[in-house]
Every structure is written in structure tokens, then in C-alpha cells.
Amino acid sequence: MGEAGGNGRDGSEGGGAGPLPRLELDQLLDELQVRIDAARGTQNRIHSLLEAVLSVGRELDLPHVLRRIVESAVVLVDAEYGALGVVEGDRLTEFLTVGVSEDEVAAIGHLPSGHGILGELIRHPEPLRLTEIADHAESYGFPAHHPPMHTFLGVPIRVRDEVFGNLYLTQKRGGETFDAEDETVLNTLAVAAGVAIENARLYQAARDRQRWVEANTDIIAALLSGAGEMDVLERIVRHARSIVGADLAAVGLPADDGTDLRVMIAVGTDADTHRGLVLPREGSFMGAAMMAGEPITTAEVQKDPRVAAGPPRFGGLGPTVAVPMVTDEGVRGAVLLSRAEQAAPFSEAETTPLQTFAGQAALALQLAERRRAAEQLTVLEERDRIARDLHDLAIQRLFATGMTLQSTLRFVDHPEANERLLRAVDDLDETIKIIRSTIFGLRVADGERRPQGLRARAAAGVEEAAQNLGFTPVLHMEGLLDTDVPPATADDAVAVLTEALSNTARHARASAADVTLVASDGLLTVTVTDNGRGIPEGAPRSGLDNLAARAERLGGRFEAAAAPQGGSRLTWCVPLAG
Question: What's the whole-model pTM score?
């Protein structure tokens, strides 16, 4: 026992060649385990980063790409809240959040536009880490109902040399702060995100080009088929609204006097509020684009100083673009597109093809005008031929027949037969008057002088209304309209016809209309019938009241009722002599 103990003491004193003490060995084992865990954690994090990069890169739809980026960022750095802000100039135009519920977003109100800490990253696009947000000089505090946030990590997302937006992460879980490794991981994700965003943009651009080509093909086919200008314009605005994702699309054309413009077509959000409005060029957004001769945009149309005239009509809308419809003959109108508030503003990549598309709208108007001019020339030539035939053939034959009957009277002794022959001669004279009145109306050429006869003025009014209606109403005329109708009554009749067709264009949404003027039995009756939606209850009646007042002043009557086949029928009837 003594030797054994002595050998043991001699061994321990002899220079430390024996095993390490148990305490020191445990410490080494613990340190090794920590390093193994750290290596395993780093490996897991690298795997997570690679999975995030692959996940982001698989998406091609830009909104989905952005959503996947911010969701991956939150997981990678173990943050409670995350956001991706899209930068346009010096402000945020989109703000996608993770970790904030819809109720919290609604309680907070308007999304941030790029002030405070968020704006700091816009002004200085470099990574930013904070232990306490409130301690930073640019911190403005949080709005009411905003979740509490302390730690912060932000990095920019670049697409080539352009800053596309920023990633914002707050509140690292476990009460920890974001470290340099978190920053490195997030920077790596931001690089991959830039590549994915560029790919998504290229895919979207290619897809939009294809949609524009298909839309152009449809419009060209409509133009070549001879479709009406309003039909072509409506196709244009519907295509444009669908491709650029607008909530409202409208077309404004110059009004009669040329200083104002009329909103002819409107589709989408509150379209009825815009359709039919007559606005001055100066004081309206479309008018500003027409005067500028180039596209104009705004992020907040309700606050834009160029929208100063007309009733409030852009409720709930924000980003807006107006593109002039230009041809070699000048500006012929404007196309307006609006998105909802807080939506992305219109980019140059979107407005450039819109210019070409708006040019097609102008071309549609130009072709329609030339088609109408050719049709009008054909009509005038046909009228002239008919007038010659009536004068040279019909009237002469009727006159000769009347002379024959008059010469036959001396051979007729029976009183009743004699009376019937005289009545037939009178009827022939009346028929000759009607034909001469018709010839006079047919031979009044548009543009040579102001039409004097009611027939020609009514025909001119119908042709002029066709521009706003998008179709030509059917016109029927009977009786001695040019000889029996007093000039003052004819003026009222033309005004009634113009107002009735204008109401049809603004409110009826009709695809056909019939106009009838009849002078018979001492009365002039003007009837306008359409196949539209009728006269809604509670609709403004100022125009109809004016028509009724004109009839009452002349001792006549006015009725507005539903047409038998749907739509509405306006009847204006006045005596030909007081």
C-alpha cells in the first residue's frame, strides 16, 4: 500500500505526463459541443438561405416575387415583423408587410410613404442596424395602433444599378438584436431578390407586349370591318384598362365648340359619374394632356391641381395617367386610366405603349370621319339623282296627267263625276307640292350654306348626332315640312330634335333610334324613339322640362313614355298655325 501510494505521489510530482483533470476535460467537451452546434446552425442557415433563394427565383409574377422575398427574409433572420417597400423617386409607392394582421393595418391607416427611419434607407441606400429605433435621430415615432418595435435591420434591394426597394425587419425574436451575420444573410437574399425581380419584370414586359399585340390586332380588325367609332373606342379603353390593371378608363373628345371636351366613354369604378360630363380643357386632367400633347401622370388625382373643374368624381382613386390621342392632323381627344388609392403609380414602361394605343383611338376617329364623309357624299349624289328624276320624270308626268284630267272636264256632264275629277286634279297639285318640297330638301348640300328647310335641317341634325351616338338614327319625314311649317316652329322643332338625341347619347345607352317628323292635319309632330334603358326614376328632368316648355309656348303638348319594345319615346306635337 505504501509503495503504491509512493509511486502515485512520485508520478504526480514528476512533470504532468498523466491524464488531464476531469474539470478541464469537461470544459473542452462543452466548447467542442458549442462549436459543433454553431457549425450545425450555420449549415442549417445556409440551407435555409439557399432554399429561400431558390424559392424566390422560381416565381415569375412580380407581386408573388415580392411577397415571397419578404416572407423569406422574416424566416431567415428570425424577425417578428417584416416589410418590403418599393421605391419610386424619394417615396414608397408599395409597402408589403408580414406579421401585421389586416385589422392592425386598417387601424394604423395609411401605409408609410417614406419618412423617418424608412426614409433614411431611401436617402442612404446602405444596410442599417439599430438596437433601438427610437434612439435614431430620424425616428419620428409610430402612429396610433402601431405594434411596438425596437430592434431594426434594413437593406436595399438593387436591380442592376437601380434601387428597386428596401427590406425592413424589426423585433428579432427572443429579445435579441440583429447581428452582422443577420445583415450578411439579408444582403445575400437582397442580391438574389434583385435578380428575381429583374426576371419577373422581363417576363411581365414580354407578357404585356403580347397582350398589346393581341389588342392591336382586335382593334385593327374592328376598324377594317367598318365598326362604329364608339364601338372601337370602347374596345380600346377596355383593352387598356385590362392590360395596365386600371380601375377606371375613360375617353374624352372635343365638344361642339372645341374649347370643352365631353367624356364619351367610361368603364369601371363610378363610370356613370364620368360618362357624359362636359369639362373645360383647362381644369380637367384629360384636357391638360390634350394641351400638353404628351402623357401626364399623377400619384394622387384627387389632390392634383390640374383637376379643378367639374363635380367631385375621383373618390377612391389615386394614380392616374392621361394620354392624348394624336394624329398628323392634331390632338383629337384623350384616354384616361386611374387606379385605386395606394396602388402603384403608372410607370414609363406602361405609358409608352399607351401612347401607341391612344394613337389608334385617334385613327379610329379619323377613319370614322372619312367614312362618314364618303357616305355623305354618296348620299348627296343619290339625293341629287333622285331630285333630278323626280323633277324630270315624276313631276312632269303628274303635271301632264293633271292637264289631261282638266281638259277632260268639258266632256263630263255628270255632276258627281265632274266633282271627283276636280278633286283628283287638286290631289295631283298637292302631290306636286310635296314632291317639290322633297326636291328642295334633297338638293340642299351640307357645308354649302345653312339649310333653310326643315327637312334639310332635320337631316343635318341627325347626321351630327350620329357622331355622339356611335350610330346613325333612322329618319322618317312626311308632309309639307318646308312649306307649311313656320320658321319659328321649325327652329323649335330642330332644337327639340337635337336635345332629344343628345339625351339619348348621354343617358340611354341605346344602339338604335328612330326619328319621325310629320306635318299633317294642321299639326307638326316630332317623335324620337330609342331601344335604350328608358328614363330611370329620379333622373334629372331639366332637358325634358325644356322640351315641354317649348311645346306649351306654341300651344302644343309633350310626352315622355316607355317605348313598346323597350327604351323610351319622346313625342312633341304643336299646331302649325296659332
Answer: 0.53
